[in-house]
Every structure is written in C-alpha cells, then in structure tokens.
Specification:
Blueprint: E1 7-12, E2 19-24, E3 27-32, E4 38-39, E5 49-50, E6 53-61, E7 75-77, E8 83-86, E9 97-99, E10 106-108, E11 118-122, E12 138-141, E13 153-155, H1 157-163, E14 172-175
Parallel strand pairs: 1-14, 4-5, 6-7, 12-13
Antiparallel strand pairs: 1-2, 2-3, 6-11, 6-14, 8-9, 8-10, 11-12
C-alpha cells in the first residue's frame, strides 16, 4: 500500500514526446501524453501536458462502461446529458464541473468513446485558477492505439484498474520534463 502522501511520477519515454512512463509504488505503466508533448508554459488549447506536481482531487466513473476502480478518492457517477466540464477561459466557471444546459463552451464527461469511463481530476489550474492556463487536465483512459491526448495523462483501462488502489487523498501526480 502506498502512503497517504504518495507520489506518482510521469516522465516522457525515450525518443517520444507523446508517450511516457508512469511510476507508482512498484508499478511501471506506459502512458500517453499531450499531442505537443509537455510544457512548463501551459495554455488553453495548446495540446501539451503541464510539467507540474498536481494533487489528485476526485474522480468520475461511467457506470456500465468499465468496472468501478478501487480508488480511495471521492468518486462521482457521470450522468449522461448532465455532467460537463467548462473550457471557456473567460467564463466564471472556467475549468469547473458544470451541468447542462450550459451556455458557454464545455466538454461532456459522458463521452461516446472510453476516455472518461474513469477520469481523475488533477489540480491543474483549479485551486489557483487563471484564465487561459488550461482546463480539463485529467488522468484518464487512453484511446485505442495510444494516440496523444489534448494535454492529459492517459493509461490503458487494465492499467487504470491496477493503479486505482494507489489513488487517494494526498496523492500527487508529478509530470517531469
């Protein structure tokens, strides 16, 4: 068991800007990063994964799509047609969970693909929020074939189930250059 203040390290894989290796306790898991690699200057829409130390805040699970991972984080159920994430940099709810109907730009947490079947909310631009610094930076399920993300860290569904027991309050995900 990993301690209360455990750290999950993510580093780029040798020879790739969009693939990485996630290390948590004794686990070593392949992961995928943003389509433009990693950055210390994260901006909305840049496609990069932020180089940062981010607390794990909570998670969302899509019932009926995959087994509920055994994370120790607060886990909410995704409601189709209801749960969204605001990605409009000038809106007061920027980088927050919102409910439909919603007038500004927002991403559905009930996606048709598997990406958000289990999604962990990372404390990127949430506790200390600033416009245009990036939204919806999550740890989530990877697409088939492992193509890059829009700035998140993603792992295979089977690896998320292995990783989940290590995800709890006080855990940090650290992305390095």
């Amino acid at each position: 068991m990993v301690g209360k203040n455990s750290v999950i390290m993510v580093r780029r894989a040798p020879g790739s800007g969009t693939r990485g290796l996630l290390a948590a306790g004794s686990l070593r898991i392949p992961c995928v990063l943003g389509r433009t690699g990693t950055t210390i200057f994260k901006r909305e829409g840049d496609g990069a994964t932020p180089v940062a130390s981010m607390r794990l805040l909570s998670a969302w699970h899509r019932q009926g799509r995959m087994a509920r991972p055994a994370a120790r984080l607060p886990i909410r159920g995704v409601r189709s047609g209801v749960d969204l994430w605001c990605d409009a940099p000038t809106h007061p709810a920027y980088n927050r969970h919102v409910r439909s109907p919603f007038s500004a730009s927002a991403e559905s947490l009930a996606r048709a693909d598997r990406l958000y079947d289990f999604v962990v909310v990372l404390d990127w631009n949430i506790s200390a929020r600033a416009r245009h610094r990036g939204s919806a930076i999550f740890l989530h399920i990877a697409r088939e074939g492992f193509p890059p993300t829009e700035g998140c860290v993603a792992v295979a569904p089977k690896d998320m189930l292995r990783l989940a027991p290590l995800l709890g309050p006080g855990t940090r995900l650290v992305v390095t250059r």
